Amino acid sequence: MKVIGSTGSKEKVDFIVDDFGFNAAWNYKEEGTAEAIQRLAPKGLDVYYDNVGGEQLELALKFMKDFGTVVVSGAVSVYIYPEEEKYGVRSLMNLFLKRLTTKEEVLIGIDRAAEVLDRVWTGKEFGKMVLKVHEEQEM
């Protein structure tokens, strides 16, 4: 696996490459995120870990490979925004409509509720578990 990262200074770039073992890094104050990702991961990203949010996350999402994984642990770039200007992922619906694949299983009938709970709690389910109380119930 190739690991790349971004930091805000040349010293930090050197640190994460030399000390943390990243394969490559860029200084986001000197090179745009889109350009850096195109240069360092021209085939796209398999995994993206984000604690910045905002524009950085929006750009990275455009470069995700099919079936890629995104881990979001914060949104430090929007913490200082006034409450009415804070936002999550603006392009999230586009991702769902165009590129994200979800896995779900739908079981029908209230009598299957115990089965659904058992599968979720024991980790037997992979993806989303849905219980429709009756066949005509809308999702």
Describe, in plain words, how this protein is organized in 3D:
The two termini are 39 Å apart. 30% of the residues lie in helices and 24% in strands. By secondary structure, the protein is an alpha/beta fold. The model has no long low-confidence stretch (mean pLDDT 81). It contains 5 helices and 6 strands; from the N terminus they run βαβαβαβαβαβ. It is elongated. It folds into 3 domains: 1-42, no CATH class; 43-103, NAD(P)-binding Rossmann-like Domain (Rossmann fold), CATH 3.40.50; 106-138, no CATH class.
Beta percentage is 15-25%
Rg from C-alpha positions?
Answer: 20 Å
- Which CATH-level-2 architecture of the largest domain? 3-Layer(aba) Sandwich
Strand order of the largest sheet: 1-2
Helix fraction, binned, reads: 25-40%
Q: Quick check: average pLDDT? A: 81
From the 3D structure, determine the CATH topology of the largest domain.
Answer: Rossmann fold
CATH superfamily of the largest domain: NAD(P)-binding Rossmann-like Domain
- Give the SSE string: EHEHEHEHEHE
Number of helices: 5
What class do helices, strands and sheet pairing give?
alpha/beta
What is the C-level CATH assignment of the largest domain? Alpha Beta
Contiguous runs where pLDDT drops below 50 for at least 5 residues = none
End-to-end Cα distance, whole Å, is 39 Å
**Overall domain count:** 3
Number of strands: 6
Largest sheet: number of strands, sense, barrel closure: 2 strands, parallel
Give the overall shape. Answer: elongated
GO molecular function, one term: oxidoreductase activity, acting on the CH-CH group of donors, NAD or NADP as acceptor
InterPro entries: ADH-like_C, MDR_fam, NAD(P)-bd_dom_sf
Domain Alcohol dehydrogenase-like C-terminal: 2-119
Organism: Moelleriella libera RCEF 2490
